[in-house]
Amino acid sequence: MKRKLSFMRNRTRYGKGSTKTKNSDRKIKVGTNVIEQLNRYQKVIKEKLLSFGKKLEGEDYVFHSLESMIPMPLTTLHKGFKRIIQRAELKECTLHSLRHSHETILMNDGVPVRAIAERLGNTPEMIHTTYGHVLREMEDKIIDTFDRPIEIGVKSRANL
């Protein structure tokens, strides 16, 4: 089973266009759960499109209005996401903030900056600029991690 997502186009309020930079055009690996959820969603969309006498084409948008089967307007997508966040009683955020959450989770888990940059279609410099605060927090964690064994040694009288 292929477990990659391709990013080849960008959607704006004016329609679709190319990705922002040469790094933005990419394929990323994803887990089986992501693929299973996308396949389930795609099956629903295909069945619904058939009921409208249409079929899913390769250039089609991912999200469609289930009432009309036209590509879901961005405003509708954003409003729907906002409702989900409110129902789940989560801190208010945007769809784009999920990208930042993804990056922060990867950084906090110790994934190398270069790998994160490739995954997000950025450069390592952009990651350092945008997420420098996370890197500084990680540096504090590194200091604490290294300081603990020294403290244990001092307590056990291993000092000079």
Would you identify the regions where 5 or more consecutive residues have pLDDT less than 50?
A: none
Instruction: Look at the structure and give the mean pLDDT.
Output: 86
Helix content: 40-55%
Care to count the β-strands? 4
| SSE string, helices as H and strands as E | EEEEHHHHHH
For the sheet with most strands, the description reads: 2 strands, antiparallel
Strand order of the largest sheet: 1-4
Q: What separation lies between the terminal Cα atoms?
A: 59 Å
Shape: elongated
Query: Using only CA atoms, what is the Rg?
Result: 22 Å
Which percent range describes the beta-strand content? Answer: 5-15%
Describe the protein in words.
With 160 residues, the protein is mainly α. The chain is built from six helices and four strands, in the order E-E-E-E-H-H-H-H-H-H. It has helices at 32-51, 74-87, 95-108, 113-120, 124-130, 132-155; strands at 4-7, 9-12, 15-18, 26-29. The strands form two sheets. It has a two-stranded antiparallel ribbon with strand order 1-4. A hairpin with a 2-residue loop joins strand 2 (9-12) and strand 3 (15-18). Helix 4 (113-120) crosses helix 5. The longest helix has 24 residues, at 132-155. It is elongated and about 80 Å long. 4% of the residues are buried. The mean pLDDT is 86.
